[in-house]
Design goal:
This protein is an alpha/beta fold. The protein contains eight helices and 14 strands. A ten-stranded mixed β-sheet has the order 2-1-14-11-10-9-5-6-4-3, with helices on both faces. It has a two-stranded antiparallel ribbon with strand order 7-8. The protein has a two-stranded antiparallel ribbon with strand order 12-13. Strand 1 and strand 2 form a beta hairpin. Helix 6 packs parallel to helix 7. The longest helix has 17 residues. The radius of gyration is 18 Å and the shape is globular. The N terminus is likely disordered.
Length: 301
């Protein structure tokens, strides 16, 4: 069994570190560490499930969502907020990331702020006639390079969640984070890229920075655009996808190189896995500690 740390032998590329130790065989056997498992004496937040079907940005879509409210939230002060695309994969207590449990543990230890989690599934358009199949809106929502999904979050979802569950969400962009896997990863980056006045912290698992809907242009855009106040953690696997849309490992390396060139606050970790959430889930607690490391009230490493 290998340790769950992001520092296990692999490829690690950060703002000032480059290390490569080759493997004879790719194992992809990452395991969850103690911060991803329920711990005795740690207060548990509550998770509430709902359905959202009133979008004007994506008219006609219906989607499931989950909201995590930490035990430490007192209802008086605005809480930090973190949004996850493909929410069912992140909120599941048996899934690759088990975010509510990770949040419970890190908030309890003061290693991240009191944070409300919003877990969104991609939209689905119900069939127009009986027997027809629903239209899945995932790629259009996640892979499109525009401010559309950001507007969906900022103008519709966050106000809706705040009002429905009577929670105060910070309007400080440094207190707003977003993450996702694959197309959900590039979506998270696009939201911050388009609206850094609203979101400035990003996590991407095996992000699809390839030419599905033009995402391969980001490295060039990053290099040629004045640096934006975004902090981003990219996770990738050596055995990720290679197909007609591009090479996922190459695309993420190009993103990391562009972020370094442009002077971003970033970290890039390359593991030995494929297109899944095993590695990202195993290192999520470290990702979050790094992401929130200097936020007010957070215990400094």
């Amino acid at each position: 069994m290998r340790p769950p740390s992001s520092i296990r032998p692999a490829v690690l590329l950060a703002a000032s570190v480059l290390m490569f130790v080759p493997f004879a065989h790719a194992a992809d056997d990452y395991k969850l560490g103690p911060d991803s498992l329920e711990q005795k004496g740690v207060p548990k937040g509550k998770v509430i499930q709902g359905k959202f079907d009133r979008s004007k940005v994506y008219p006609g879509t219906v989607r499931d969502y989950w909201v995590y409210i930490p035990k430490q939230y007192d209802g008086k002060s605005p809480a930090a907020v973190m949004v996850f695309q493909d929410g069912k994969w992140y909120v599941s207590p048996t899934g690759h990331s088990r975010v509510p449990t990770v949040f419970d543990n890190l908030i309890h230890k003061g290693e991240m702020p009191v944070t409300i989690g919003v877990f969104l599934n991609p939209g689905v358009v119900p069939p127009a006639r009986q027997g027809a199949k629903p239209r899945r809106n995932r790629s259009f929502e996640y892979d499109t390079l525009s401010d559309q999904y950001a507007r969906f979050l900022i103008d519709e979802i966050l106000p809706y969640i705040s009002k429905k569950y009577d929670v105060k969400l910070t309007d400080n962009p440094d207190g707003r984070a977003i993450g996702g896997i694959s197309s959900g990863g590039i979506c998270a980056w696009t939201v911050a890229w388009e609206r850094p006045d609203q979101f400035r912290k990003v996590i991407s698992y095996v992000g699809s920075f390839t030419n599905i809907r033009g995402g391969h242009v980001y490295p060039a855009l990053i290099r040629k655009t004045q640096r934006k106040p975004i902090r981003v953690f990219l996770q990738e696997g050596e055995n990720d996808l290679e197909n007609l849309h591009g090479s996922w490992p190459l695309a993420n390396r190009q993103m990391a190189a562009a972020l370094k060139f442009a002077g971003y606050d970033y970290k890039f970790v390359m593991g030995d896995g494929g297109h899944n959430g095993k590695h990202g889930g195993a290192i999520l607690p470290d990702m979050l500690r790094w992401l929130w490391r200097d936020y007010p009230g957070v215990k400094q490493p």
